[in-house]
Every structure is written in C-alpha cells, then in structure tokens.
Specification:
By secondary structure, this protein is mainly α. The protein has helices at about 15-25, 40-49. The chain has one domain. The chain contains 2 helices and no strands.
Length: about 50
C-alpha cells in the first residue's frame, strides 16, 4: 500500500489498533462486524464494547 506520511497511524500493537478501528467504525454508525471463529477473548471484548 502506498500512502502519504500524514495518513499513517502508528499503534503500539494489534490490540490498540483494533480498539481504534472499532471506535472509528462505531462513530460512523457501524453496529456489527464479522470476525474469524478463533481469536483471543480480549480482542472479542474490544469489538463488543
């Protein structure tokens, strides 16, 4: 992917990035997301907050 430096967001890890992504999606009115069957419980908690 190519982008400009102003459009990059550096996170401290997957969990923080997932939380930020879910927060933005919620702000735009998204009420549900699809995820793979496996995954860690903390990640599922972040998605369902």
């Amino acid at each position: 992917m190519r982008t400009d430096p102003e459009r990059l967001l550096v996170c401290s890890g997957y969990t923080q990035g997932l939380g930020l992504l879910c927060a933005v999606l919620r702000e735009h009115g998204l009420a549900s997301v699809a995820v793979e069957e496996y995954g860690l419980p903390p990640h599922h908690e972040i998605i369902t907050l």
